Structure formats: structure tokens, C-alpha cells
Amino acid sequence: MAPLAPRSGDAVFANVERVNAELFTLTYGAIVRQLLTDLEEVDEVNKQLDLMGYNIGIRLVDEFLAKSNVSRCVNFKETAEVIAKVGFKMFLGVTASVTNWDVDGTSCSLILEDNPLVDFVELPDTCQGLYYCNILSGVIRGALEMVSMKTEVTWLRDMLRGDDAYELRLKLLKQVPEEYPYKDDE
Amino acid sequence: MVGREVAESCIDSVITEMVSAYCNRFYSAKPELASPRIEAIGFQVGLQLSERYTMERPRFTDHLEAIKFICKDFWSELFKKQIDNLKTNHRGTFVLQDNHFRWLTRMSIEPSKNSSDHPSGNTTTTTKTKESQAAEMHLCFPCGIIRGALTNLGIPCAVSAEVSNLPAYSLKSGEHEQRPPCGVQEFWAGTIEVEAGVWDLGERAMKDKTKKDTGSPFSSSYNGRANSTFQKSKFREPYPFSYENKPSEITN
């Protein structure tokens, strides 16, 4: 049976169950707000958002692979493009762009100009240092780990902090080949 | 009105992870500290959502209209369907029934060894408690949403949920006419029961609810459970109040 052709981000997004983004935006905002109340320290909130994102990412990647029919990426460049064009689109309904590759091809920037997480959000002065969208970095990191890539995802630009876009720096640390739990011979 | 959309798995994942973080990471030893916080998150969401969804409407004339708004328009915005059944005892208690609650349909509880031994569908107390507990934690969030929405509409209330049969659940919400004239938010825990579930009609008789096939999704029947579960608020003595002369039928 011939493998199914990979679908574009738009096509996948059109085929998944969708909800009002407002519900999502408000829920996420309420969660961040409650985390700030309960954990008090901005660094701790950043950490927890990343961890929550990681836990989401390790599961979300299954849905991503199942619904998008992407074939195995040959290199990290392709991986980044797929995340930006298909991954972001099928979940958040927006696409990101990939730029600023380093010479090795192991590090790049994902730029998001439109971000449903931050609709109508303003950070008060008391939240200096908060990476409001830190859940996204965790999601990407978790998802990639499930496909054998250890990465580091950090924020370079954040519109809630006054920058003009959201820029995530995606760095491939290690490609861990899949280990089989049994010997393949015989 | 279709505004911006995101995939449903976004909201599902975020809610599930939030509940997990609060129950298993932050307050693993004290779940009673997790549930009010999960509910508070929902409250915030309900407050803001009802604000947005009622911006262009005139104020509701009475509590029943507000409850019906929750059952129809509000529920549709959130879950793409309306509440299936609404009951009231005309004394401030409402029962909202959703037969297929979206946010629980995708929940998977780790199967326990005992649950397969009972073909009648009855589970042992322990497995039921675990399942119920997990589902109840999740339900704190939509309970909070309802409470936030009703509060924004001027109706102080308490909403609680009860799991009877996964993925069945029931939400309870109490409703009070008068708000005490002070700054502190005081409310009574009454019983608006939202009973929901995917009933295994073949295997399990419905509880003592009379399900009338009236054709209308709203019936005025009430099975009198409210009285037994009325709880006092810790702030004040309960005082009797009654719904002003309302017709007993809640029609569309």
C-alpha cells in the first residue's frame, strides 16, 4: 500500500475538531494567573509552564504524526519546517517561519507573528521575567524528544515584553537513535 | 459567529495537564487544596466568557432566563451542544443534564483489575472512588466556569459535580436569590444537579429520575434530591427563600 501523501497544515487543520480560540486563550490565561498566585515566583511559573508543555508535547506528537502523515524528516532543517508549517497550523491555526540557521544546520529561529495564546493579553509590571508562552517551548521540546531529538528551546523575542514578534530559538543538541528492545537478528 | 479557532486537542491537553499539575505535582498530598484552585481557574474563565457572550444582549430579566442562557447559548459556545435536560425545584436549585459531556469523553482512566469482573457495570467501591475522584477533579474546572458565568450574570451560586458512572457525571449548582449586603462573597451550597452521562440503557436502569419523553429538553420534574444535600455555607445561617411565583414548567 502506497504511503499516504503528507497533508498541508491547512488541510489537517480543516480536518481536526476545532474550538473557539477564545476559550483556549482565556483558559490558558486563567491558568497562568493562578500559577502566579500559587507559585508566587515568576521563575517557578516559567519552569512549570515549560514542564506542562513538555508533558503535552510528548502526547501531542502522536496526534500530529497520525493526522499529518508527514514522512520521516531527512534532516533537522526539514523538521523545523514541518513544525512551523504543519505543527503550528494544525493545532494553533497559525504558521510560523523558520530563519537564522547556523552553519551546522542544528540551530534556527521559529518566528510567530500571530499567536492565539496572547490575544488580549497584557502583562502587568509585577510579572517581569515571565515567559507567558513558555508552554510552547515545552511542547516543542517534548514532541521532538519523542522522535529521538534532544533539543533546547528558548525565547529570543516576546511581544508581551515589547518585542515585535515571538521568536523561539530551536537548537538540536543530540539525535538519539531509536533503540530496539530486542535483537534484530535471527 | 465563528471567530478564530484552534484545534480542540489544545484545550483538552491544557485542561488535562493543568488538572494533573495541580493534583499530582503541586498538591499531591492534599487534593482538597487542588480542587478549589482548579475551580478558581474555571471561575475566571466563566466570568470572562459570559462577559463576552452577553455583551450585545439586554440584561436577563430573571434567574431562570440566565440559567437557560447557560443551558443553551453558553453551553453551545463551549461544547457545541445544548444542555439536554433542565430541572428545578423552584426554590433556587437547578439540575442541568448533559448526556455526552465533551471534556470527559476523551478521558481515559487506567483500568483497574476489578472493573472487568462485574458485567452488570457495577464497580467495586475502590475503583469507582478512584475514577470518580479523577473525574471530579476534572469537573472542578467546568463547575468553576458555570459559577463564574452565573456570578457575572448576577447570580451567586455554588456548583458542584458528581460522578455516577464514567463517562457519566453530574454537576451540582446551588442558586440563591439574595446576595448578602457585604463585601465578602458568601454563597450557599445548594444543589443544582447537572446530571450527565452516557447511560448504558441496556445494562443499568436509570436512577430514580423520571425521564419524560416530552419532546422538550426542559422538564419541570424534580426528584427531590435537593433537600438531602443542602449544605450550609460556613458564613451564615441559611434562611428560607423561595422563588417568586414562577410557573412550574420550564418550556423552551
TrEMBL record, chain A:
Protein name stated in the entry: Trafficking protein particle complex subunit
Record localization: Endoplasmic reticulum; Golgi apparatus, cis-Golgi network
Keyword Flavoprotein: no
GO CC terms: endoplasmic reticulum; Golgi apparatus; TRAPP complex
Known role: May play a role in vesicular transport from endoplasmic reticulum to Golgi.
Gene Ontology terms: biological process: Golgi vesicle transport
Quaternary structure note: Homodimer.
Main localization of the protein described in the UniProt heading: endoplasmic reticulum
TrEMBL record, chain B:
Cross-referenced Gene3D superfamilies: Trafficking protein particle complex subunit 3
SUPFAM superfamilies cross-referenced by the UniProt entry: Ligand-binding domain in the NO signalling and Golgi transport
CDD domains registered for this protein in UniProt: TRAPPC6A_Trs33 (cd14944)
Location of the region described as Disordered in the Swiss-Prot/TrEMBL record: 110-131, 207-233
GO cellular component terms attached to this protein's record: cis-Golgi network; trans-Golgi network; TRAPP complex
Biased composition (Polar residues): 111-122, 216-232
InterPro entries linked: NO_sig/Golgi_transp_ligand-bd, TRAPP_component, TRAPPC6/Trs33
Any Gene Ontology biological process: endoplasmic reticulum to Golgi vesicle-mediated transport
Family from the record: Belongs to the TRAPP small subunits family. BET3 subfamily.
Cited PANTHER family: GEO08327P1, TRAFFICKING PROTEIN PARTICLE COMPLEX SUBUNIT 6B
Protein name: Trafficking protein particle complex subunit 6B
